[in-house]
Amino acid sequence: MKASILALITTGLILTGCDNDETYNIDITAINLVNNELNVVWFDKNNDQEILLSPDSSLEYGQVTNEQTLYQDENHGSAYSFKATDGNSLENIIEKTNFAFTHDENYVLFAYGKENNTSEQKAALGAVFLDNEGIAQNQYRVILLHTFPSEMGMLDIYIENKLVAEDISYSKGTNHINSNIDNVHLKVTKADSIEPILEYTIEPTSGKFHAIFIAPKATDDNNAAAFIVIDK
Predict the structure, then answer these.
(1) What CA–CA distance (Å, rounded) separates 36 from 228?
(2) Which of 53, 57, 73, 76 could form a disulfide with 40 if both were Cys (CB 3.0 to 4.6 A apart)?
(3) In this predicted model, what pLDDT tens digit does every residue of 89-131 receive, in sequence order?
(4) How far is CA 44 from CA 89, 136, 218, in A?
């Protein structure tokens, strides 16, 4: 079974609400995989404000925000809303997108796809749950996500030349994979092919969760690259 990137209505690991009678909170990091300068915006329903997740400057391509905690009161519950705007024009690139997040958990929010595109490749927001529970100190945990619009077909994933996930569709991810800390060679191929579109050396942190996004090397580049967010 493959893990789906979270959308407005989702199932599985991340959708359980919380019964907290006072506040809901999540820890979140955001990454820009869309354009050269992007603002990721949180709708702060408590104060009726729009809050930038990177307040000092727009996110450059591949850049990650600092982790931060977002709070909502019980009237708004576990439904969190975000959008993305161009870092220069401030025009909406990704419209308001809603997620149901579990209280007191960690997530990566990622903008991916192509700007000014109305097809399946269009820019969108997704989110992935970072589960650090039960990782041995000589291991790391990883999820790999297909956010590479230049190759819309399915991908196969290898770690140390062992097939760990196959037929991963665009906008989907692998299951959580526990790997020994010395298993670091990542290879990505088109499904049913042995020719790599990407080879990469992971630099893992022991006992931590790693979200690896297979995405364009740059906004105008059709070559694949790996972008990694490690839960701190």
Answers:
(1) 18
(2) 53
(3) 999 999 999 999 999 999 999 999 999 888 889 999 999 999 9
(4) 22, 37, 31
Q: Pick the closest to residue 78 from 8, 12, 147, 24 (CA basis).
A: 24
Name the DSSP letter for residue 176. Answer: P
Residue 183 contacts residue 203 (beta carbons within 8 Å) = no
Q: Out of 3.40.50, 1.10.150, 3.30.70, 2.60.40, which CATH number does the structure's domain 132-232 have?
A: 2.60.40
Are β-strands 68-73 and 23-33 bridged in parallel, bridged antiparallel, or unpaired? antiparallel
Q: What is the pTM of this model?
A: 0.89
Domain 1-130 identical in fold to domain 132-232: yes
Which single residue is written with the structure tokens 């000589």? 138
Q: Is 1-130 CATH 2.40.10?
A: no
Q: How far apart are CA 140 and CA 180, in angstroms?
A: 6
CB–CB of 128/6 below 8 Å?
yes
Chain center to CA of 125? 8
Those residues with Cβ within 8 angstroms of residue 49's Cβ, 6 or more apart along the chain or in another chain = 43
Task: Please state, in angstroms and rounded to a whole number, the distance separating the CA atoms of residues 145 and 148.
Answer: 9
